[in-house]
Design brief:
By secondary structure, the protein is α/β, with parallel strands linked by helices.
């Protein structure tokens, strides 16, 4: 199934000219850890709450005057909404990403998926498999296999 079925359809985005302070307030208000920086609804960057915290507390930027464009990661890795879920997870792993903006065939932002989203999804799937296995135990037990070189007739004293 494509990533479009699993991604958040309303990604929070910000113009690169917004201040770090405005972006931090937006993240707080919407309880999100990142914002996609867009220009003409196309992702051109991404900024995280950690970027802002380290940038401001590290005395590199003044939150009231510094602009998102000064701090955001430029040219974020994106994937098209038709991409399969497994490929999205591989892309995130390959690039060490926790957030992956989703674009349509025109390159416009249509969603986002995070590593937390994938973790919830995969753990839910695994839980479902475990429940099916528990409800349907094997009809007969499997034989116990002895390690090579050990006698089945020996007794430990």
């Amino acid at each position: 199934m494509s990533i479009a079925a699993y991604c958040r359809k309303v990604p929070y985005s910000v113009n690169g000219k917004a201040t770090l302070h405005a972006a931090a307030q937006m993240m707080r208000d919407f309880s999100v850890g990142s914002l996609v920086v867009t220009r003409d609804n196309r992702p051109v960057g991404i900024v995280t709450d950690r970027d802002i915290a380290l940038g401001v507390l590290g005395d590199r930027f003044d939150a009231a005057t510094a602009k998102i464009d000064e701090l955001a990661t430029k040219s974020p890795v994106t994937i098209e909404e038709s991409t399969r879920l497994e490929a999205a997870a591989q892309t995130m792993s390959l690039h060490g990403l926790r957030r992956l903006p989703i674009v349509n065939s025109s390159g416009e932002l249509v969603g986002i998926i995070t590593s937390d989203d994938l973790l919830k999804l995969f753990s839910s799937e695994l839980s479902g498999v475990a429940n099916v296995s528990a409800a349907n135990p094997p009809k007969r037990s499997l034989p116990v296999v002895q390690p090579i070189g050990e006698s089945t007739n020996s007794v430990e004293v």
